[in-house]
Amino acid sequence: MKPSYSILFFSLFLSACFHQPSTSHSDNELISIHLPLAQDEHPVYLSEIVDSIEYLPLETVDHALIGSVDKLIVTENQQLIVVDKETARSIFLFDSTGKLLHTIGHAGTGPGEYALLEDVSYYNGQLFVWDSSLKKILIFSMNNECLGAYPFEYTAYSLCNLTSTMLAFCCDYTPNRELTEKGSCPSLLFVDIERGGKPRTALPFPVSTSAAAYQATLNNLCHQNLYLPLNDTIYKVRKDGFEKKYVLDYAATYKQAKESYVKRSQTEPLTADDAIQSFQNDRFPHLITYFECEGVDVFFMRMQSYLYYGFYYPLSGTYKEGSTAKGLPVINDIDGIAPFLPRSSEGNVIYSVMPTSVLLEHDSENSHRTQGIHEDDNPVIVKFHMKTIVP
Question: What's the pTM?
């Protein structure tokens, strides 16, 4: 299991720019989004990108205490799937009001049990669980019925459904030696769990690449969107393959710095310490996470001491960027409570997770919002309703 994104993200928690993409929006042409990546203070105000905010406390029950939210999935009927990989080692299902319905599956080594929750994916009323310890994929109904188990012998970290039987896995830069071909290993696997057999492979990388040279990311294969640290492309993954969706374009000097580091990662045995040093010191952007909404794409990046949020609006072809070295690049001027820390998206809503202690600290006098909430309760889900068009 790779390092928790929560640790990485919250370690960073201590006049916006508008630009047009450099290519047209034709379905037959790849969209290139220019990133200014200004190294100065230009935060975005939340009211510029968000219409409204909702707070949804998750019900606290003694047998269902959430230690950390490693993944949040929102279903089409607004149910919330909360994955706690390490503390509770459980998958919790809440309804749209935050009421706990039940857990899905449970930890163990027997049939229908999972030992290590590497990743979880939802598709058409079913939950797919990738257990990287027992090397199997479990399928559950939302009523907690185990519908099947399938072997999967490869190393991977992110999972998403392409159909009810076709899954895509991202290996990052960890090599699956049995899939090596011409000195390269795939970073993307296509697996038909019903047919079995050897997976289809794509997006190869040299076997010499130092897997530890890159920081862990959140959901780099989510909603059939894929991004990888070695390149600056957002891919759309489909059951019959993949296509390039966006190219992130930035200054030539930044590109040269990144190319230099990529070359080092393929010629030197770099370590996690090297990755941290690059994350903090090298002058090229590190894409930490990407989320797609109906009317806006959200990018979170870091370059040296600066953090960046980028917002791309496909309907208008507008890109809006906030930057800061003094906190987060988005300032909550709507209610001053929730920090903009995306963890999931569904429809036109960005979802975040906030400890109840933060809500109580900043909203102690607002009784309708904090009534009945205690500091050690399960976290609060924050729903940011995003604007779809920026003038």
Answer: 0.90
